[in-house]
Every structure is written in C-alpha cells, then in structure tokens.
Amino acid sequence: MDTIKLFQCYRQQYESPALRTGQTTVSPFLSRPWMLNNSAAAAGGDGKKGLKGIVAGGITGGLEICITFPTEYVKTQLQLDEKGANKRYNGIWDCVRKTVHERGVFGLYRGLSVLVYGSIPKSAVRFGGFEQIKLYLVDEKGNLSGGGKLLAGLGAGVLEAVFAVTPMETVKVKFINDQRSANPKFKGFFHGVSSIVKAEGVSGVYKGVTATILKQGSNQAIRFYVMESLRELYKGNDPNKHTPKLVVGLFGAIAGAASVFGNTPIDVVKTRMQGLEAAKYKSTVDCAVQIWKNEGPMAFYKGTVPRLSRVCLDVAITFMIYDSFMDLFNKFWK
C-alpha cells in the first residue's frame, strides 16, 4: 500500500497534466523535475531574472565606462603602437603626457561617446544573457557546476560580441587610431560611423568579429567562472548568506585580473584587426602570425599593465553596481 501511495505522489509531482487526465503523454521534463514549475525559469526561482539582468546590466554599463574610459584609451594607444620609426610612446605615462599636451585632458576621453552608446547594450546583453542561460544550467538546488559557470559565461560573451561589442569596438578603435594622425577626420560619433559605413560598407563596423568572439567568449567565461566560484566559497553552506558590496568588488577585481592574463593576446590581435591599418592583415590568423614574426611573442602582451588596472577596476565596479541594482530590483520588482 505504501508503494502505491508513493507512486501516486510521484505521478502528481513529476508527470504532465496530460498524463493525470488519462492521456499517455509523459512530461518531457521528467528527468529534470525542478523545471516543471511553469517554465525553465523556475530553476532559478525567478522567471524575470533575465529581464532584470538586462535592465541592471544596461545601467551598469553606462555608469562604469564613464569612470574607467581613460585607462581604456591608453591601453588601445599602446596596443596600436608598433616598433620602429612609427613608435610614438614609451609607456603608460608617456602616452598620458603626450595626449594631454597635444589634446588637453579631454583627449583622454576621445572615443568615449562610442563606448557610452555601446556599453549600455553590451552590458545589458552580457548580464541578461548570463542570467537567462544560467536558468537552464542550474541543478535542482539552484547551483551551477564548474562547467555550467564556464558555459554560461561563454554564452554571454559570444552574445555580447555579436550584438554589441564588435561594432562598438571597431568604431572605438578607429576613433582612437584616427587621433594618431595630424589631421583627424572623424568629427564625432555619428560622422565617424557614417564615414566608416560609406567607405567600407556595414561590414566596416564588423572588422575582427572572429577575434572579438574569441576575446569576449573567453573573457566572460573566465570572469563569471571566477566570480561565481568565489561567491560560493564565501557563502559556504549557506546559499542565502549576504555578500557585502566591497567583497563583491574584491571578487570582481580578482576575476578581472584572471581574464586579463588569460586573453590579452587575443585582445591585441582584435585591436590590430579593428584599427585603420587592418587591411594589411589577410585574416585574424595572419594578423597573429605577422605580430609574432615582426614583433616577437611579447607583443601579444602590449598594454597589459594599463589593461590590468582598467579591467580590475572595471569588473570590480561593474559587479558592485550590478549587484546593487539587482538587490533593488529583487526588493521592488516582483
């Protein structure tokens, strides 16, 4: 009798409504019963988490880039700088000094408008994508495995690379590259974009898409893996334990540093492929080969120090802002 009751309970809990009304269709989610509560979103306990991630991510992206842009500018200039007669800068502070001397302090913000326009959708796609993918990968307790963290981060990175980062980064690099000439030709964001599209077509803003997908995919896979792992380590056996924002910032900085050392070579190739002289490279692979032959392996780590300072600050600020907005949304957005 106990066995019969147990079986009836199992049917009511894990099989589809169709089976309970006498039909023979079995729930396709029988092997993953935690997904039966309305949708896969139930796995994460919040069907609106993806939408909240998009909104919180968009706000986060706009605020973060305004704070950290000068370091991005210096990093890009150093990565564009080649050896030989065309070399212009002898390091980070030399780049800052020359830029301020030639263009004023606001010269360090050249191309900011491009990143502001691009960072909002980029961050929105990144966090919204991660939250949505995460819903389908968590186990019955709402936890992500190590592989799940990497996969969710990788998916988020690929999505942002295709829908936001590639066009934004291409225009940004061309803007900064343009400033290296004696007479810059781009007068502003919209003039620059229209000039690029007129000269190269829409594909002109999708230069380096392969390198960008590789960069963003590996970037976010590393960052989210490290971030989620550190959160779990901090919370221990209490998944509801609150993580202070300063601790979140520290974890973000560590995650950012890990991503810098993990994919700076890809970032250098991406930057070259998106510069004004990208035509001299036949492909992403050809660009990497030419850098190796002409400049040596250390060229793949150009701009590492300014990128490290920028990314650690960037990721720390990003996760702190994002967590703050998600806490707010979870409190008032039911």
Task: Give the secondary structure arrangement, pairings included.
Blueprint: H1 2-14, H2 17-20, H3 49-80, H4 92-103, H5 112-137, H6 146-179, H7 189-200, H8 209-235, H9 245-274, H10 284-295, H11 304-332
Record keyword descriptors for this entry.
single chain, 334 residues, mainly alpha, 69% helix, globular
Description:
The chain contains 11 helices and no strands. By secondary structure, the protein is mainly alpha-helical. The protein is globular and about 60 Å long. The two termini are 43 Å apart. Residues 13-45 have low confidence and may be disordered.
Decide which structural class fits the backbone: mainly alpha
Number of strand elements: 0
Helix-residue proportion? 55-70%
Would you list the SSEs in sequence order as H and E?
Answer: HHHHHHHHHHH
Approximately what portion of the residues adopt beta-strand conformation?
under 5%
Mean pLDDT: 80
CA-based gyration radius: 24 Å
Number of helices: 11
Low-confidence stretches: 13-45
Calculate the terminal CA-CA distance, rounded to whole Å.
43 Å
Q: Largest beta sheet, briefly? A: none
Please tell me what the overall shape is: globular
Q: What oligomeric state do these chains adopt?
A: single chain
